[in-house]
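JOB MANIFEST
job_type = single_chain_structure
chain_count = 1
residues = 841
[input]
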Amino acid sequence: MRVSSFSLGWRGLWRDVRAGELRLLMVAVTLAVAALTAVGFFADRLQGGLQRDARQLLGGDAVVVSDNPPAAPWTTQARALGLSSALTLSFPTMGRAPDAQGGATRLVALKAVEAGYPLRGSLRLAQGAARDRLGELTREVPARGQAWVDPALPEALGLQLGDTLLLGDSAFTVARLIALEPDRGAGFMSFAPRVMVNAADLPATGLVQPASRITWRLALAGPDAAVRRYLAWAQQQVTQPGVHGVRLESLDSGRPEMRITLDRAGKFLNLVALLAALLSAVAVALAARGFAARHLDDCAMLRVLGLPQRRIAGAYAVEFLLVGLAASAAGVLAGWAVHHVFVALLAGLVDAGLPSPSGWPVLFGLGIGLTLLVAFGLPPVLQLAQVPPLRVIRRDVGNLRPASLAVLGLGVAGFAALLLAASSDRVLGLIVVGGFAGAVGLFALLSWGAVKLLRRLVNEQTAPRWLVLATRQVSARPAYAVVQVSSLAVGLLALVLLVLLRTDLIASWRAATPADAPNRIVINVMPDQGDAFRAALTDAGVQRLDWYPMFRGRLVAVNGKDMSPADYPDERARRLGDREFNLSHDAIRPAHNEVVAGRWIANEPGAISVEQGLADTLGLKLGDTLRFDVAGMPMEARITSLRKVDWASMRVNFFAMFPLAEMPELPVTYIAAYRAPARAGFDNALVRQFPNITNVDTEQSIAQVRRVLDQVIRAVEFLFGFTLAAGLIVLLAAVGATREERAREFAIMRALGAGGRLLRDVQRAELAGVGLLAGLLASAAASAVGWGMARYVFDFAWSASPLVLALGGLAGAVLALLAGWWGLREVLRRPVVETLRRAAE
């Protein structure tokens, strides 16, 4: 035969496409590519937008961020290099309207700026009082006595332009509305409306207190070479002993806080896309093996006609290459369309005016699709070239063998490497890919044991005939049973995990805040205001009050050794080691804190109690001596107890507490948490009486967080549709893998006198049993994964129902029955003579 491999492969492609032989395989590849490229397009455009607007988002070419006013050398070095600088301060506080205009109050994000701000980008102000009409761009700052505010603030306080806004002890005129603030960061991180004032007005407000959480940002701008020299100098300064709470932001580092929520959303989306791709790999492997099994006889005839093995292998390689290109291209187009849905669902979290994507997601999608076919599709198909011509007269020779471990391992390694590259988080990729491989192995082992046990448990003397026959069907071909159960379990694992993520984990997160939890947190209460403040709450009917002194301190030494963030490899440990903590003291242990190690002894001198999570992160233990720097005053104490703290309880909690009733030498303010009475005007009256306090309405903040979370959940659920589709394809492919074997066995039983009803009962029992076992295995694995996420990621108690196993098993049985009905519906209707004749040919 002179036909070329390409011509033979092209003809085979059209024949198999028309016959529906490649339908499941092409859909599986398309789904995998679409899921991964949708996330890829979204991430690529988001990254492009951040790079495009980097200088505007930073407000300069580089920024020095600190917990305290930057020391003189930071600005001196900038001037020496010819860089411009602008210092800003920002912190939360309470804004209020005058009593004559209602006296309403609102938590605001106050920002004090000086001349020259912003160094990069421009403020855009609204035109007049119309919040939707954009006005001019400006490089000016508010004049003395003026406040520029977000449009939402006048609406909340009932104010107009020209009215008075009270901040602490000062009154400001609401002069302009801010339409765009270039360096504010992502809008979803600032739940309170912005108030911008001149830095020279800040001291008169009296809002800067010892425990105020103020962030200083020194923005710098100038020639790139000078900026690089400054950053090199600054990196050395940050690592110097005694320099704490200082970090650098540049065009390379960006602002981490502006990406937290989007990074979390990106990880969720990557997780779902990886699951869809892995499920598609299982579907491709099953579909390709079924395809190869159906073409054994055709290849044997081609060998009889003289076609060499090399040409047969080349023909199928060409066919699968063309299938991979077509399915991958369709997946890339689908991913391009789907990523627009992400942008719409995350409206408000991302800028709709993102730049066009690069060509990387297209190339990556094509690579994923082709690698998927090469890794999981070609190994069984290439065996067709080795079918002996003798098969045309002896059907017992030339059957498919297990794929070569070398070929399969090389393909799987390449596919796993691409998936790791697709995941934005290496740890996430390793957990997903490694966990998937481990689950497949575990499912195979357990299903093999279950098949062996099944034959022993069913008594053939007393059990119904349909059950006996179904048991024999399963145990007669244990390899097929293991493949089916494992494949179904892998598909169901993703589906059950979807349900648990959407219901149990999300519900547990939302239930972490009890109904009677405090909904107000008040800080900056001065010591001389304490009695009057508590009396005001008591008169208003507040029954439970968390009331603690609070002061700021930095951990500088452990067991006499100076502490440096560089000593810790863990990123969170480095952040904790380089920040100031809110500390407290009280002789009575907080009732909502459980001591898990050591003892809390009231008024024990030289003692300190540490939160267990902090101790684990920093490697602290009972008996360690800690030295804190509190406003320049060293304080040493020995760890005598470890406490378990529920940070989601909305109660007042501290990383470290001294078990002392009095510490008069400390510059303290007080923090309070309580449930506000349902009385109109209560918050406004409290702020009018104590204008320096910051009253945080946590209900509004939590509602904002939940709205953001809901947006992310909707985007994740949308992508989970791909995982659902991939899981269903796995079910269909797993059930259809043994279609011809079932057809032959049922034909023989029908020839021996078995009725159609008995065979239907046998088929249903077998499918339901396989699905039930797969559902139980998948539910157990999904519950374990859910527990791990709740325990180590979300940090709350796991609340999965014990019915998960039962419902998962039932769902597996139902889905297997439905997939069997769809994939095997013609098996029982096929004439016996046709089936036996086909088997004998």
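[summary]
Residues 698-736 form the longest helix (39 residues).
Residues 55-259 form one domain.
exit_status = 0
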